[in-house]
Amino acid sequence: MWTKCSMWREGGLALATTLLLSWTAGSALAQEPVRIGHVAALSGASAQSGEAITRGLALAIDEINAKGGVLGGRKLELIQRDDESNPPKGLIAARELIFKEKVAAIFGGIDTPVSLAIVPLVNKEKTLFMGVWAAGTGITRNGANPNYVFRVSAVDDDVDIKLLKYASDKFGAKKAGLMLINNPWGQSNEKGLVAADKDNAAIEIVGISKFENNDVDMVPHLTRLKEAGADAVILVVNAPPGAQMMKSRERMGWKVPVVSHWGISGGRFPELAGPTAGEAHFVQTYSFFGKQSPAGERVLTALKKKYPQIKGPEDIFAPVGTANAYDALHLLALAIEQAGSADPDAVRSALENLKAPHQGLIKTYNRPFTPDNHDALGPNDYIMVRYDGDKIVPVE
């Protein structure tokens, strides 16, 4: 027979049990990590670029987690997949990160074709995607509404303006010949360069030659451009075929200036191209050479500590991968905190309306994204560099 006292005891026990379970569930949620996905070339000819991105993400995660993580104690956890610079493999990797690993966001790698393959998936599944290398204009400007794709990296349309202007200003070029990889990235830059040419009266495009990734002999391509009167070559390609182009140019004895997109910095270009590698000037978003900001000093110190093989700026390969990824992850973490949640819609809205300025590695970001612009960097954030041996050094 139950008494009032026993009923109160039973009721109190049940209430205490419920509160304990509720607290335990809430505590477990608070401690569950926020998973960050990364899809990039982690093997093959462009593996250095993937490793550079990994280093930038790892440094940012170390800093954020050391300060307690996000959302009241949730640590960030990096989960990576190798796309081997192959769009179908990149798409499979992204699906696995979304559906199996339940990542809060995916960071994209070097290849525009891979990123373009992933973009429709992330927009359909409402998963945040942060581009930190691939520059294809259509990656962020993809027509989706809402658009879950953001980028802290170069944008082809803006880079193309820079490349033509640099060829004219630096080398006095008046006639540009284009050497473009025959894929969606090359197509993106062909469109951007033709548009940039219309707005630049100092230089005109006199020839366009397209080649395949596995082409070895570039002499026929270069000969056509030379015969067209080109006094500068604008190069859009990744490291291995870019090196073949430089070797073909050397065999021809043609000393034409080469102004390149940054694909040649994503692999073993100096080794593959040989002694003329330093004659190609190319675009970057950051250099660890010269006087550094407080953020630059902090990151350089952290790189040396985490990766003992790094003794100085000359040992940092593919620096844009590290710099872009580092800044992008900090911006994502700020948006998660501002949203008070890892919910993709809330974080997307927060990214488009970040309230406080952020002192990043590349620059101070003051509302880097808007609903109409998902690219945090513009033409004023680009610098020109070249190889000096294995080092990437500024030339302006």
Assembly state: single chain
Q: What is the helix content?
A: 40-55%
Strand content: 15-25%
User: Which residues sit in consecutive blocks of at least 5 with pLDDT less than 50?
Assistant: 21-28
Total helical segments: 12
C-alpha Rg, in Å? 24 Å
**Element order: H for helix, E for strand:** HEHEHEHEEHEHEHEHEHEHHHEEEE
| Spatial order of the strands forming the largest sheet | 7-6-8-9-10-13-14
- Quote the average pLDDT: 92
Number of strands: 14
Shape: globular
Structural class: alpha/beta
Specify the biggest β-sheet.
Answer: 7 strands, mixed
| Distance between the first and last residues' Cα | 91 Å
Describe the structure.
It is a single chain. Mean pLDDT is 92; it is low at 21-28. The chain has 396 residues and is of the alpha/beta class. It has helices at 4-31, 47-66, 87-99, 112-125, 156-171, 184-198, 219-227, 239-252, 269-273, 294-306, 319-339, 344-352; strands at residues 34-40, 76-82, 105-108, 128-131, 149-151, 175-181, 204-211, 232-236, 258-260, 280-284, 358-359, 364-365, 383-388, 391-394. The longest helix has 28 residues, at 4-31. The chain is 45% helix and 17% strand. It is built from twelve helices and 14 strands. The N and C termini lie far apart (91 Å).
Write the layout of secondary structure elements.
Blueprint: H1 4-31, E1 34-40, H2 47-66, E2 76-82, H3 87-99, E3 105-108, H4 112-125, E4 128-131, E5 149-151, H5 156-171, E6 175-181, H6 184-198, E7 204-211, H7 219-227, E8 232-236, H8 239-252, E9 258-260, H9 269-273, E10 280-284, H10 294-306, H11 319-339, H12 344-352, E11 358-359, E12 364-365, E13 383-388, E14 391-394
Parallel strand pairs: 1-2, 1-3, 3-4, 4-5, 6-7, 6-8, 8-9, 9-10
Antiparallel strand pairs: 10-13, 11-12, 13-14
